[in-house]
Write a structure and sequence with these properties.
Length: 377
């Protein structure tokens, strides 16, 4: 998957190693591959270490990202020894860890190396970080820098975990603005075999509980416009639960499309009238939200994690209380009844995405941050 990115010859010798122990798939894994592919296109050396059974291991070659399989899915001696051996024979300038397991394995393995590469912990989620001594060591001493995907996550690590402000940096995920942009809605619907001329509400997200699919389905069942259609793009462990709730609410099957995981996300977004992401936990700044805004869509979401950093309520989007299906239904009705308001929100969302959500902006900040870590090391 080729990404648009500008070269950075000044840092062409940068050698980056990523670790990811997660076996699943979602925004975190997409951020890793997006960033890695962008860095490679800028001329940097990048390699990913992950369990061979992980989804990201199988996906990496499609993104042009070199990947090696290591048994690091669990915190055990096998993974520790494998990672220690790999790092002992690495010429990486810096190592970026992404999940709890690979972060711990990397930190402990580094203790047994004479000159390990400096470790950067990239924190994707807004879930609370433990305040115990071992975790403070991991984030404060073992990590030369902690990067978060949202300012809210960074501030919590300062306020609750007591980490120094200059040890933390917020770098939200960027997207390819050449790929995600406004398009012809009718053309997109024809290509996707979707009906033309009816309001279409959609969500693009891994099917997990905290993404708020159930709240969206409940809100959809309560909206006034009975011709509107709901589009749920994505796959995941919550699929059966969503399908059962659709049946319980007696929502006609012809008013819902669930195409599963899709590669042509821009086209699906361009086919929509309204994008809704009612997450209630764990979010940084969701990529799908930025993608929808970059396509010029009016968006409805919740004040969770880093979402308010992209949505200024009433100006660049609408925020409704988390887990409140009634408030969500009212917000959807309000926008469907006000085309002018939709257009204004969509235009403001597009400007916001272009100013704050670009891939090149993310890569520039990552290069600067990593170069600073290497220089200090």
């Amino acid at each position: 998957m080729r990404l648009e990115s500008s070269p950075s010859p000044k840092f062409s010798s940068l050698n980056i190693l990523h670790t990811e122990s997660s076996l699943g798939w979602g925004g975190q894994e997409i951020r890793i591959l997006t960033e890695a592919a962008g860095m490679i296109q800028r001329g940097f050396q990048v390699r990913l270490l992950s369990p061979p059974e992980a989804t990201i291991y199988k996906a990496a070659p499609k993104w042009g990202v070199p990947v090696e399989g290591l048994p690091i899915a669990r915190k055990n001696m096998t993974g520790l020894l494998a990672l220690r051996h790999r790092l002992a024979n690495s010429d990486a300038d810096v190592i970026i860890t992404h999940s709890s397991t690979d972060s711990w394995l990397t930190a402990v393995a580094s203790l047994f190396l004479r000159r390990p590469p400096p470790m950067v912990r990239l924190r994707h989620l807004s879930t609370p970080v433990p305040t115990n001594f071992p975790t403070r060591w991991l984030y404060g001493t073992a990590s030369r820098l902690v990067i978060t995907t949202g300012e809210g996550i960074r501030q919590r690590l300062i306020d609750v975990n007591g980490l120094p402000a200059d040890h933390l940096l917020s770098i939200p995920t960027g997207i390819d603005l050449k790929r995600f942009s406004p398009g012809d809605q009718n053309a997109a619907r024809l290509a996707l075999n979707l009906p033309i001329g009816i309001p279409m509400i959609g969500i693009v997200a891994t099917l997990r509980s905290w993404k708020g699919h159930i709240q969206l389905v409940e809100a959809f069942s309560a909206i006034q416009n009975q011709k509107a259609m709901l589009v749920i793009v994505g796959d995941g462990p919550f699929l059966d639960t969503i399908q059962k709730r659709l049946v319980q609410l007696d929502i006609p099957p012809d008013r819902v499309r669930m195409p599963g995981s899709q590669e042509n996300i821009p086209e699906w977004l361009q086919a929509l009238d309204l994008f809704v992401l009612p997450s209630y936990a764990n979010e940084g700044v969701p990529q799908a939200l930025i993608q929808a805004m970059a396509c010029g869509l009016p968006v409805i979401s919740t004040p969770v994690g880093g979402i308010p950093e992209m949505i200024d309520h009433g100006r660049t989007g609408i925020l409704t209380p988390a887990k409140d299906s009634i408030a969500l239904a009212k917000a959807i009705d309000d926008l469907l009844d006000n085309p002018q308001k939709c257009r204004q929100l969509g235009q403001a969302a597009l400007i916001q995405a272009r100013e704050k959500g670009s891939l090149d902006g993310m890569l520039d900040r990552m290069v600067e941050a990593l170069s600073g870590v290497i220089k200090r090391h």
